[in-house]
Amino acid sequence: MPDLQSELSRFPLFAGLTPDELTQAASGCRTVTVRAEEMLFREGDKCEGFYLVLSGGVRVFKLAPDGRERILHIARAGQSFAEAAMFGPGVYPAFAAATEDSRLILVRREPFVQMLREQPETCLRVFESLSRWLRRLLDQLESETFLNARAKLANYLLRETRRLSPGGRACRIDLSQPKKDVASQLGMAAETFSRALSDLEARAMIRVSGRRIDVQDADALEALLLGEAGPNS
Fold first, then answer.
1. How far apart are the first and last CA of the chain?
2. Run of H or E residues at 204
3. How confident is the model at residue 230 (pLDDT cuts 50, 70, 90)?
């Protein structure tokens, strides 16, 4: 099994550090193993630090007053989460639970903040990571505010197509999480998500088989998105 220093170096936040700096960073970290659905932290818990995902996945979510989950983000291997909790009041602003058996690195708050004071380049990378998180939230807010369910799904499928097949007009998307979790991320009920999938499939834009979605006509998805996001939609 790789040592902690080499595992840290795989993540963008730590990739530019020297061996001595990685050793310093690793001294403030520990590995964490969690089972599927095990809770890492709850909203309002004191912030111990942020996490890096080595394997598995973690969903970050809020709870509505009626107990329903609203997923904000799914963190997968190679990604980090809860950086924002390192600053401000020092508590976690949401819940986090493993989506499957997972192995993580906990980057403890105090040693890391001390390192930021000493390593300006690492500090910049943290803010870059926080900026990406903010853009995700703004995209999510814009989608929820202006798009209907069918357009939200089309927008999601187009983003995944661009990510998996840059420049391509067709793509196979294998969902790494249950459809209900994707629906939650898009701000819709699972039943609404299923109806939107069926609608796009009936229009021959996609083909669905279990968790696999074949995007067959990205141009038609873009036309639908532009039409339904317009001022007269």
1. 54
2. none
3. very low
Q: Which domains does the chain have, with CATH numbers?
A: 4-136 (2.60.120.10), 147-228 (1.10.10.10)
The model's pTM: 0.64
The residue type found at 71 is: I
Q: How many CA atoms lie within 13 A of 15 on its CB side?
A: 9
How many CA atoms lie less than 13 Å away from 86 in the CB half-sphere?
24
Query: Could you give the CA distance from residue 182 to residue 155 in angstroms, rounded to a whole number?
Result: 13
Q: Encode pLDDT of 121-165 as tens digits.
A: 777 777 776 677 677 666 666 555 556 888 888 888 888 888 888
**Which residue in this structure is represented by tokens 């505010």?**
145
Instruction: Give the tens place of pLDDT for each residue, 162-181.
Output: 888 877 778 899 987 888 88
Whole-angstrom distance, CA of residue 163 vs CA of residue 217:
16
In sequence order, the β-bridge partners of residue 105 are 31, 52
Q: Which of 130, 123, 118, 117 is nearest to 14 (CA)?
A: 123
